[in-house]
Specification:
two-stranded parallel sheet, 11% helix, 2 domains, GTP binding, 202 residues, six-stranded antiparallel beta barrel, translation elongation factor activity, nucleotide-binding, mainly beta, 2 helices, Elongation Factor Tu (Ef-tu), domain 3, Rossmann fold
């Protein structure tokens, strides 16, 4: 599914027999390690954390009920990391790089007509950057227009980057000319075009 980084939280440690059993944790860790190895993960890069969500053990701070657990440690090419609880394992996740250097692709989720503003397409920037003043081309209708403004959560943006869900106001385009599923791109940098075929992971 494209998930590159993994954390394994072994939950319900308070319900093992006996409670907070080191042997049961090690057994689960061994089984899950074998499984994730088969599907392509390196267990050395995966943090295994024994937790109890119900009691809060090893969630935000180390639990005194599992003195046998000396902490998790991972090794990956970007460097090592270690810690005692789940929140530290989450903090050790490496943020993805945003593909801002690729041409703009923004599939439309919806198009609104807003009184006093005009036509506002809405969608998430997948690649590239969207800025006010840009000329955008909508595929597949090959319609080009200027972006007057870009907003996210009712705040004006100077630029929208991949991952941002934005609304942007376009000049001289009626709401009837655009629809969900159209893709906006930068008219000056490889705008989206129809493809005869493509490769995808399902």
């Amino acid at each position: 599914l494209g998930v590159k980084q993994l954390i394994v939280g072994v939950n319900k440690m308070d319900s093992t027999e006996p409670p907070y059993s080191a042997a049961r944790f090690e057994e689960i860790k061994k089984e899950v390690s074998n499984y994730i190895k088969k599907i392509g993960y390196n267990p050395a890069a995966v943090a295994f954390v024994p937790i109890s969500g119900w009691n809060g053990d090893n969630m935000l701070e180390p639990s005194d009920k599992m003195p046998w657990f000396k902490g998790w440690a991972i090794e990956r090419k970007e460097g090592k990391a270690d810690g005692k609880c789940l929140i530290e394992a989450l903090d050790a996740i490496l943020p993805p790089s945003r593909p801002t250097d690729k041409p703009l692709r923004l599939p439309l989720q919806d198009v609104y007509k807003i009184g006093g503003i005009g036509t506002v397409p809405v969608g998430r920037v997948e690649t590239g950057v969207l800025k006010p003043g840009m000329l955008v081309t909508f595929a597949p209708v090959n319609l080009t227009t200027e972006v007057k403004s870009v907003e996210m959560h009712h705040e004006a943006l100077q630029e929208a980057v991949p991952g941002d869900n934005v609304g942007f106001n376009v000049k001289n385009v009626s709401v009837k000319e655009l629809r969900r599923g159209y893709v906006a791109g930068d008219s000056k940098n490889n705008p989206p075009k129809a493809a005869a075929d493509f490769t995808a992971q399902v």
